[in-house]
Design goal:
96 residues; alpha+beta; three-stranded antiparallel β-sheet; 3 strands; extended
Length: 96
C-alpha cells in the first residue's frame, strides 16, 4: 500500500493565548449544527466567562473521546480522579 508521509502542522499562538486561562466550570449547549462550550471561572457569589468555543458535532465527539482517553492515561499513572462536586446554585449570564 502506498502511504503518503504525514505533514507536520505548525501551530501559532500569541503570548496571551499561550498563557492559557483557568476554568473550574463548564456550560455546554448545542444546536443541530454546533456545540458551544462556555468555560467559566466561578468563585461565588460571582464568576466570569473566560473562553467560549464553538465546534461541530463531529469534532465534539472527537473531543469527548480524547478526554476519555487522557483521563484513563492519567488515572493509570496517578490513580483515580475524584469528580469535583457540582455547584448547588444556578449559573447564568448577565449583560454588561
Amino acid at each position: 500500500m502506498n502511504q503518503q508521509p504525514q505533514q507536520q502542522i505548525q501551530i501559532k499562538a500569541d503570548d496571551q493565548t499561550a498563557k492559557g486561562v483557568y476554568t473550574n466550570n463548564l456550560i455546554i449547549g448545542h444546536t443541530k449544527e454546533e456545540f458551544v462550550l462556555d468555560f467559566l471561572n466561578v468563585f461565588p457569589p460571582q464568576g466570569s466567562l473566560v473562553s467560549r468555543v464553538f465546534t461541530s458535532p463531529g469534532h465534539a465527539k472527537r473531543i469527548l473521546n480524547a478526554l476519555k482517553d487522557n483521563v484513563k492515561k492519567y488515572e493509570d499513572q496517578f490513580g483515580k480522579i475524584e469528580a469535583a462536586q457540582e455547584p448547588d446554585q444556578n449559573i447564568g449570564f448577565k449583560a454588561e
